[in-house]
Write a structure and sequence with these properties.
Helices cover 57% and strands 0% of the residues. Helix 1 packs across helix 2. The protein has one domain (18-69). The chain is mainly α. It comes from Jhaorihella thermophila. Residues 11-48 form the Ribbon-helix-helix protein CopG domain. This is Ribbon-helix-helix protein, copG family. Pfam families: RHH_1 (PF01402).
Length: 70
């Protein structure tokens, strides 16, 4: 039996704080959508606003170096 085609691309697993998850759940409930939908929408908006940035607004490399040093 052929595999069922995926509606979306690759899956991603992330860990959230309880308060972040609660906030996402409230937004999803208000909009009558899933938490996954809210997260996909947030990612789409972030990418649309930052795709042309030469340097990302988040200092990811610097943050990772600081975390490793601790």
């Amino acid at each position: 039996m052929p595999a069922k085609p995926r509606k979306f691309g690759p899956r991603l697993t992330v860990s959230l704080t309880g308060s972040d998850y609660d906030a996402l759940s409230i937004l999803a409930e208000k909009g009558e959508v899933s938490v996954s939908w809210v997260i996909r929408r947030a990612i789409e908006e972030y990418l649309a606003n930052h795709t042309d940035d030469v340097e990302p607004t988040l200092p990811l490399r610097r943050l990772q170096k600081v975390e490793k040093a601790q």
